[in-house]
Amino acid sequence: LRDMPGCTVVRGHAAFEPQIVRFEANPVSILPGEAATLSWTTSGAANVSISGIGAVDLNGSRTVSPTQTTTYTLTATGSDGRWRGVPTDERIVIEVSMRPGPSRPEFGEC
Question: For residues 57 and 48, is the Cβ–Cβ distance under 8 A?
Fold first, then answer.
């Protein structure tokens, strides 16, 4: 192709870089035996994985029940296998408390 007056020729390949739009946990603090839900949304990704879980859908959620405080890392890669885009990985920590916190006195209790 050659450039013509009034026209622009684009050469090369414009890759759509993967992005993590959202990665969250609810709740972020649990007791042993309880569960938390990881939720995520990506854009432009061909493959998505979460550490400790493996390959997951490009968008979705997963219930986890860690037995100790755990960091989950979501990684999104493009179709060329590269980890491109900002950001391409996000981390969430789910804290597992060994015992519940102190209870508050009920109304009228002292």
Answer: yes
With a cut of 70, say whether residue 64 has pLDDT above it. yes
Q: What is the sign of the dihedral through the CA atoms of 60, 71, 28 and 53?
A: positive
Q: Where is 36: in which H helix or E strand?
A: strand 36-43
Q: Which long-range contacts (CB under 8 A, 24 or more apart) does 100-103 make?
A: 100/31
Counting residues of the chain whose pLDDT is more than 70, the rounded percentage is 67
Beta bridge partners of 75: 49, 89
Integer angstrom CA distances of residue 104 from 3, 28, 95, 107, 108: 75, 21, 21, 9, 11
What lies within 8 Å, CB to CB, of 32 at 6+ separation is: 67, 96, 98
Q: How many CB atoms lie within 10 A of CB 60?
A: 12
